Structures are given as structure tokens and as C-alpha cells.
Amino acid sequence: MRRGTGRGAAALALLMLCGCSGLRSDAARARSARVSAENAVLIASRVPKSVVFRNEVVSLSGRSPVVCGEYNGMNRNREWVGFSRFIYAGGEITFDLGQPEFAGRWAGECPGAGGEVMAKLARPKAASGRD
What we know:
The protein is α+β, with helices and mostly antiparallel strands. The protein has one domain (about 25-120). Helices cover about 40% and strands about 20% of the residues. Strand 3 (about 85-90) and strand 4 form a beta hairpin. Residues about 1-5, about 5-20 and about 115-130 have low confidence and may be disordered.
């Protein structure tokens, strides 16, 4: 006797697709947030073509994504200035200028500070000499 596995398999496939679409949606939101954050850093940079990013992490746990990361770029003398931290949230970029408010925000919203829904984004390795 044949069992009705066709319907069960179709339902399972549909359920799996629905679950995966949510993951794709989250991945798309994370990529979009990362691109927006990088653009905000580039706009504020003195030499945008020199900017490199590392350790970017996106949190999707709040109403809008939060991007935390580090960037390095050259100054007007074409010297590397060293990596600095940034937080991008709600369409606004905040740079670490040594203010205590930034440190508190970093601890609350960025990796290593207990944020659960964090997705580390794979980035190509920066060329040597830029670290």
C-alpha cells in the first residue's frame, strides 16, 4: 500500500522555503545596512578611496539594524591614521573620538557586549600595511 508522501513532502518543502526566505531577508537587511554604514564613513573621510573596513558586525535585533565596525584611511598627507571604531544606527554615523558616551554605546550595541542577534559579515582581507 502506498502512502500519501507527495503531499507531506510538498508541505515540508514549502515550510523549508518559507523559513529560508526569512533568512534571506535578514541577510539582505544586513548587507544593506553595512553598505549604508560604509557609505556614511566614506562621505566623512578625507580620502575616501583609501578607506578599508574590518570587524563589521550587524545587529538585527532592534527596529533598525545597527552596524558596528572599524575603519582606517589616509589623511591629507597620505599617511595611514590607524583603525577607529564607528556605530551606524538609524541612518546616523557616530565615530569614536574618545568620548565616554561612545564607549558606553559600543558596550551596549556592539560585539562582545552581550548583543545576541549579531551576524559577522565576511569581508575580504585588507592589503598588508593597512592594519
